[in-house]
Amino acid sequence: MSAESMAILILLGSFFVMVFLRFPIAYAVALSSVFTLLYQGLPLTTIAQQMVRGISSFSLMAVPFFITMGVLMGSGGISERLIGLAKACVGWMRGGMAMVNIVASYFFGGISGSASADTASLGSILIPMMVDQGYDDDFSTAVTITSSVEGLLVPPSHNMVIYATTAGGVSVGSLFLAGYVPAAILAISLMIGSYIISVKRNYPKGEKFNLINLLKQIFISFWALAAVLIVVVGVVGGIFTATESAAIAVIYSLIVSVFIYKGLDWKGVWKVLEKCIDTLSIVLILIATSSIFGFLLTRLGVPQLAANAILGLTDNPILLALLLNLILLVLGTIMDMAPIILIATPILLPIATSIGLHPIQFGIMIILNCGIGLLTPPVGGVLFIGSAVGKVPMERVVRATLPFYICMIITLILITFVPSISLWLPALFR
Predict the structure, then answer these.
(1) DSSP letter, residue 156
(2) How does it sit in the bilayer (predicted)?
(3) Any idea what the Cα angle at residue 205 is, between residues 391 and 224, rounded to 5°?
(4) How crowded is residue 207: how many other Cβ atoms within 10 Å of its Cβ?
(5) Which residues pair with 94 in a beta bridge?
(6) C-beta separation of 366 from 341 below 8 A
(7) Residue 172 vs residues 166, 285, 425: alpha-carbon distances, Å
(8) What is the DSSP string of 75-125?
(9) Any idea where the domains of the chain sit in the sequence?
(10) End-to-end CA distance of the chain
(11) Within 10 A of 239 (CB to CB), how many other CB atoms are there?
């Protein structure tokens, strides 16, 4: 075995061993990189250099702002207002509260950009409400966690910023626009699945549709939804960069949460900022350590080796696209979202583009695959949160989620083989 092959084995082998031993991902990435550097005789100062280089990006400055915006709005009393708006839109249907859950996640995702925040915030309100109205607790939890994935696709999503930075040359504004239609298709597919189950189990209908109530709820929720307009319109219209729009959105979110909705006082704001620092420190450590890992992958030629190996299996673009999805789904079962984006993008993006997938389309594919991974054992962060919030054993939640996995896979296949789903809006506003 050559020295280069041995270095690759040390890098990837030690990484996956530590992942299966449940090491924190940042530690696994950093330690496997250190072992490889030591084997190759490279100076350990390379670690500091690559970590600094990894987070020294103007685009990445948007990430802490988007996280802060999401936490401020999520803690500022907007959950109830968005639930009211969703109820006015779809609550009249059979299984109306399940539909409300799905639509509310679409609205809330446009503010928080986080599946975990969606599940924790909306789930703590909607799951007990659904159970009180006669829905099974495992079904209520399954609807909550699967619909939360919409929040990863609806902008602003800090994971889209991470992908754009990692992929290089991908417009954050185009990615933001690309997420709307896939998220809507995901919501519709989940609603169809929920409706079929609701009819079969005879879940209740809500109150009849009332246009006046809908207009009232739109007015009440306007200030929350306007935060998304500031970000998306500002970036797409070229008024702000992604970082500038995120900073403005933080100030706007602070004003709305404290002075308009009055869901936060100044003492609460400081607690929110503490929570932001906790989340941000995890994200930035992952980005910094993944930069070392990515440097070694490139230096050892792993992306090219992986591309040759995968392309050697078949030259059929359909099978290759399915294989890329399978790889990402498997990674999603053992790794968190940010590390997958940071590590897999440099390896898989060249393969994706070689079979005709647009980088923006592939970015949406990665995010949805990672979202499904958040619901999949053994490392399903949102699955654990949903189980805890709904007070339902994880085994029952997984069983109840199986029909919704089918809905999500159908959506993923549509995104993979119908490029216009992801690319229509970016092309329209180009």
Answers:
(1) S
(2) Multi-pass membrane protein
(3) 70
(4) 11
(5) 205
(6) yes
(7) 11, 22, 13
(8) HTT-HHHHHHHHHHHHTTSBTHHHHHHHHHHHHHHHHH--HHHHHHHHHHH
(9) 58-283+302-428
(10) 50
(11) 12
Q: Give residue-wise pLDDT tens across range 19-64.
A: 788 787 778 888 888 899 888 888 878 888 888 877 776 667 777 7
Q: CA-to-CA distance for 186 and 311, rounded, in angstroms?
A: 30
Instruction: Name the amino acid, one letter, at 6.
Output: M
Q: Which conformational region is residue 95 in: left (phi greater than 0), alpha (psi within -120 to 50 degrees), or beta? A: left
Reported pTM:
0.81
Helix, strand, or coil here: 66?
helix
CB atoms inside a 10 Å sphere around CB 401:
23
User: What is the residue whose two structure tokens read 């997938």?
Assistant: 357
For the segment 303-326, what is each residue's pLDDT rounded down to a tens digit?
A: 777 777 777 777 888 999 999 998
C-alpha distances out from residue 80 to 105, 126, 217, 226, 255, Å: 12, 10, 11, 16, 18
Q: What 3 state SS string does 164-218 have? A: HHHHCCCCHHHHHHHCHHHHHHHHHHHHHHHHHHHHHHCCCECCCCCHHHHHHHH
- Burial pattern 270-282, b for ≥16 Cβ within 10 A else e, equals eebeebbeebbee
